[in-house]
Amino acid sequence: xxxxxxxxxxxxxxxxxxxxxxxxxxxxxxxxxxxxxxxxxxxxxxxxxxxxxxxxxxxxxxxxxxxxxxxxxxxxxxxxxxxxxxxxxxxxxxxxxxxxxxxxxxxxxxxxxxxxxxxxxxxxxxxxxxxxxxxxxxxxxxxxxxxxxxxxxxxxxxxxxxxxxxxxxxxxxxxxxxxxxxxxxxxxxxxxxxxxxxxxxxxxxxxxxxxxxxxxxxxxxxxxxxxxxxxxxxxxxxxxxxxxxxxxxxxxxxxxxxxxxxxxxxxxxxxxxxxxxxxxxxxxxxxxxxxxxxxxxxxxxxxx
Length: 304
What we know:
Blueprint lengths: L10 H19 L3 E3 L9 E4 L3 E8 L3 E8 L5 E6 L7 E8 L10 E8 L4 E5 L1 H12 L3 E6 L9 E5 L4 H13 L6 H4 L1 E5 L9 H16 L5 E6 L7 H21 L7 E5 L12 H7 L1 E7 L1 H6 L2
Parallel strand pairs: 1-10, 12-13
Antiparallel strand pairs: 2-3, 3-4, 4-5, 5-8, 6-7, 6-9, 9-10, 11-14, 12-14
């Protein structure tokens, strides 16, 4: 009769078991605090308008992940935190296969600089495209970083791919109707005139067309202030009249393109308010201008 004999707990196998046990204990000691919603509730919400295309993913207890493109700007990706869970510094990013493919290895995607502010991460167009491609392929994205409060426990923020593909398709459809400029780009516009003339050069007309295009789309604009200026050449009375003619011409250009006349205030100042020296040709060209300022009630309130 052959008796079975238990192999002693020693040698290479024993060392391996001890090592695995130590690693397991070490991992449990620094297990990450994970921010991720239930997969059944994970979704990407699309908000679209001619002013902004926005695809957002709510992350419970943390904040949100957002793909955004504003009119006149490039696409960006933001990671917003409500309670500042992430400390500033480098965060690691990896792409993981869905949980039902546990045997597939994660793919590292590099490191990114995170901030302690509410917008923890702000990625460029190229970087955001990489993230969108991974989510579109069904990969979940995991950001890992030390926490805000400075403990040894790392923080993981998980972006689920569920519902992303139809969301990004809608996002791309929204881009077709996006305006070429946003409010910040047209709310303060300066138009420059040739010496002694009141006709706008073609490139200045294109700037004015952008103002009219945006103004007709944004019903919140309550007022347009148009101010005419000249350089210091010639008689002061002639300059005052020339600045009036330039400002009125700009106002009429906007009215012809749909801007309500009753919202426009026209003022003219001649050579009274130069922005550069009239002693040099370059300075005089900067002073021959008409400025346009757009005003919205909500912007006045937010600036107080």
